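Readers of this paper often ask what the protein records in our data store actually look like. The remainder of this section carries one protein's record, kept here as part of the documentation.

:::
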Amino acid sequence: MPKTPPSNADSCDAATVNRWVPANSGLRQMLAAAIIPMVAYFAAAMNRLFGSAAKDRTSILMYHRVTPHVKGISAPTINVTPRRFRKQLEGLLRRGYSFWSLETLVQCHENREVVPDKVTCVTFDDGYCNNLVNALPILEDLGIPATIFLATAYIDKDEPFPCDHWSVKNCEALPRTAYAPLSLDECRELMKHPLITLGAHTHTHQDFRHRPEAFEEDMRLCLEYLRTELGIENPLFAFPYGIPRFGFNASSLQRVAKQLGVRCALSTGPHVNDIRETPFEWGRFNAFSWNTGATLAGMLSGWYSWADQLRTRIRAERSKIRAITRHKIELTIPALDGTGNYESDPAELPTISIIVPTYNRASWLGEALESLEAQQTEGLFTYDIVVIDNASSDNTKEVVECRAATSDISILYCHSVPPGDAPTRNEGLRNSESDWIAFFDDDQLATPHWLSGLFKATRDCHSKIVGGPVLLDLPADELEWLGPICRRALRELDFYSRLHPYVGKDLPGTGNTMVARELFDELGNFDESMTTGGSDSDFFIRAYEAGHSLWFTPDAPIRHRIGRDRLEPEFFRWDSLSGGAGHAAHFEYREAGWSGLFATCGIRLIHAMFYVAPAYLWALLLRDSGTALGRRTQLWRTEGYLRKTLNVLAPRLFEQKAFFDSLEFRNGRTIVKTTDSKSSDEHDKKDSKSLGNEPPNESPVAETPTATSEVEV
C-alpha cells in the first residue's frame, strides 16, 4: 500500500470521503515533459514572428512552490526555483507585460471596463510557506501583485499537503519551507501586504467531481475560516486540480461556487480569457521550471492554447465518429429549454420505480433505502421503491417492512427464489408499472439529486437510457493503490465529464441507470440464461442494435460501498475468470461465431503474453502491489476467456465442468440449470465448497453481485 497521507488530513470534515487525485504515471510524466516544452517553444517562435494572437484578451499565470532544488531529489516541473521565478517575471516585464492583481481584473469585468493588451496576473495555489519566504521578496523587488489561494484545512500544519504526492514522498529529506503550508500568523502578515490578496481554494483540496454536495460543504468550511480568522468576505476562488476536460470545474460545481458568493472560479485550463466572459470559466497557464520569459510570453500571447483546443477537438471528433458509426446518432446535446413548464399535478407527472435487488445485505440495505427516500423530485416526477429479495436468509424482509411502515415513499417488498442478477431484476420489472425504471443496488448510497439528475438527462438528450457515475466509496489512499484496472474490476464507472453518449466499449451498468419502460416491451427483459452475469450489457447492446442512443450524465453519481473481502486477490481472480468466460460465451461467440471467437482469443493471448505479463513483472519489480494486482486481473480474465474458447471449440477435450460450475456462483449459491424434482431451496443449500474452483469466501455484507456491466476492462 502507498504511504498514508499525513495526519493533517484528519482535519477534513468527517462527513465527506477524502479523495485526492493520484499522481501522474511515469509514462504520462515523460510524455508531458517532452510535448509541453515543444509546444511552448513553438508558441514563443510564433509570438516573435507574428506578435500576440490574444488581442482584447488577458491571461493568468499559476504557480505552486517557489523553492530551491534539493540535491539528490528529482523535483516536479511545477517546482520553480527563486532564481527562475525572478527571471520569468523579468522576462515578461522586458517584453512589455503589465502585472495586475486578480482583484483588479475581476473588478474590470464587473464594471465592464476594457483591459489593455499584455496584461497578466500572478497566482499561487494551495498556500505554501515558501510563497512568503521565497516568492514575496522577488514580487516586492519587481512591484508585482499576486493572489494566493488557500486550502484552509492545512493552515498551521507542519506536514505536507496530502494532495502533494512529491512532498509526501520526500518530506523527510526536504527542508520545511519546501513543503509546509502557511501558518495563520503568516497569512495575517500577507493580508497586510499591499501586493498580496488571499483567496479560497476549498478547505481540503479534494477531487470533488460528481460530488457537488460535498463540494458545497467543504467550501462553506473554507469560507467560514477565511471570514472568522482573516476577515475575508466574498473571496476570489480557484478550483483544486481544475482541469476542465476532466470535469474539475464542472457546471454543477460552478453553480455551487456562485451560490456561495465567491467572485470568480479559476480553472487550470491553458487558455487566454475574454474579460467580458464569466470569471467562473477563466483559465490559467501553469509556469514550469523550464519556462523562460520568452516561452511564457508565447503561452500568454495565445499561441499555446491551440494545442489544448486541438486535443479537445480531436477527442470530440473521434467520439462523434464512433457514436455515429456505432450508435447511429449525432453527437449533439440538445439545448435546455429552460422553461420549467413541467406538470405540477402529481397524477399527471411521470412515474419512476427504483428497483433494488438484494441478497443477505440487511446491514447495508437500510442505509441504501434511506438515501433513496431522501431523493429531491423538484416537482418533476413521482417515484416508488421496489425491493426484490433474492431469497435472503437474514432479516432483509424485516428491514424493508420497517422502513416501509414509516416512509412517505411507497416501498414494495417482493420475494424471488431463482438466484441470479437477471431473474431478480426481471421480477422487479414485473412488479412495477411506472413510466421509467431506475436500477440501484443494495450496496450503494445515492446523493439527494441522483434520481432528478438521471431524469433531467433523459429530457436534455431525449434518450430512453441514461446512466451515471458509480464511484467507489473507499479512502483516497486505497483508490490510489488499486489503480484504474482494479477500480474498473470493482465496477467503477465514470466515463465523461459532461452529458455525453456512450461510445466504443463503454456501457452503463444496472447499478446506476434509468430506462424507459417501453424499451423492455420492445426489446424484452434481461436474458436469464446468462448465469455468469452480463445480462445488463446484453440488454444495452440490444438497445444499440435497435437504434437507441445511450447517454451518460455526470450529474447523477452514486457511491458504491465495497466490503473488505472484495479487495482480496481471490475475489479479483474469481470475478475476472467469470467475466472472461462470460464475455467469450455470451458476446464474442454469439456475435462472431467460432471463427471470430478463435481469432479474438489469439489476439488476447498475444496481448497478454507480450504486454500484460511484462507489465505485471515490471510492477512486481517496482513492488507496486496495486498495479501488479490489476495486471493479474487482466491475466485472469484472459484465462477465463481462453478456457471458454477451448470449451466451445472442443467441448469433449476441454469440458472443464467443475471449473465452469464454479463460475456460475451468484448470490452465494450455485445456479441450477436443469429442472428436476428437487426444490430450489435444496439447491440453494448445496455446499459451494464442493466445486472444483470455489469463489472467495464472502461475508454476508459482500455476497450480493454488483449489477454492472461485464464488458472488457
